[in-house]
């Protein structure tokens, strides 16, 4: 199995809502067999049950677990409706991975299978007392997890909470991804593109799809074995049609097998966040744009999302990103060239659509101007030309939208809260 196939399998496992509950189901049966085998060893007298009591308790637990499973599934359906209606369908890619939800489902299925397996061992003169007590404890754990899940569900399904979660994920992936790409092999500087005139072989994709990830370390090692330079022509997150060029092989004593190369690049039906921090920013912008739609008309939610976008942009601006990276082998020889998103790419993704859809809102104009002016004062000088360009575009949009001078002044005033907290110059404090 190639690395790309294992990556896709891992993605399927992370997004699956049935694998962990299935493991819980199997574990429940195994625990029931163990409880029966060690039953009757030193239990207090108060923990012994009659056959009718044990049967009734276990039957009630089986029914309760089935009902609770249905309740959690109903909550899942509500999340899907909420995400696709008022948030972003892309958020579902992250929600499927929620570990607490899988733990709740696994606990319910495990308690169900445990209790059901114990039922068949009950006889008039033989009762699995230890197993019945364990089943009661499992119900207590299940209820506790359900309460934690409900608390999380009711508090974290708000757009602002989801935006904060997605923003943190994006920042983590951004830092970790840069370390992974640059640390996969020693940097050999940036010698520019491979020299022209040498042999160039082109590796084409066998199947269409979105580039979800690639393995820089193994691609570098593969290029070293064949004494060539591999140039990845696509960004992570790009859609690649079948038969399109994904890698160029420059020079070398022999070209690697195309399947060896494509086996280190994972394709899928949609973007993932593992090596694509811009995907998190895409989700944040989607939530803000959805809040600005006429059907929702909730600019305050968009302002709250802009808070997380501003934090993300400050992280990106200080990262020193470039639009291409050159990785070397252990001897420092350039072996792999990969494409990257630079500061301007992230900035355009963050503000363009919000500006286009939110110009009619005074809140958005004022908050967006506050974001851009804050970037001007906090980021390195190399990032500032792109910020000034976005400020000029915002100014033009405001001038087109607001013909009345007074409203234009209001829309052009930076405000970190959108409306209600405009910047005031420092004034001397008068003595009493």
Describe this structure in words.
By secondary structure, the protein is of the alpha+beta class. Helices cover 59% and strands 9% of the residues. The chain starts with a helix and ends in a 21-residue tail after the last helix.
Shape type:
flat
* Proportion of residues in helical segments: 55-70%
* Count of alpha/pi helices: 15
Instruction: Please state how the strands of the largest beta sheet are arranged side by side.
Output: 1-5-3-8-7
Summarize model confidence as the mean pLDDT.
86
Strand content: 5-15%
Runs in which pLDDT lies below 50 for 5 or more consecutive residues are 184-193, 427-432
- Please report the total strand number as a whole number: 8
Structural class: alpha+beta
Major beta sheet summary: 5 strands, mixed
Radius of gyration: 29 Å
First-residue to last-residue Cα separation: 79 Å
Order of helices and strands: HHHHHHHEEHEEEHEHHEEHHHH
SSE layout and pairing:
Layout: H1 3-15, H2 19-37, H3 51-86, H4 92-95, H5 99-119, H6 129-156, H7 159-183, E1 200-204, E2 209-214, H8 216-225, E3 229-232, E4 239-240, E5 245-250, H9 258-262, E6 265-268, H10 277-291, H11 299-319, E7 324-328, E8 334-339, H12 343-358, H13 362-378, H14 384-401, H15 405-411
Parallel strand pairs: 3-8
Antiparallel strand pairs: 1-5, 2-4, 2-6, 3-5, 7-8
Helix pairs in contact: 2-5, 3-5, 3-6, 5-6, 7-10, 7-11, 10-11, 10-12, 11-12, 11-13, 12-13, 12-14, 13-14
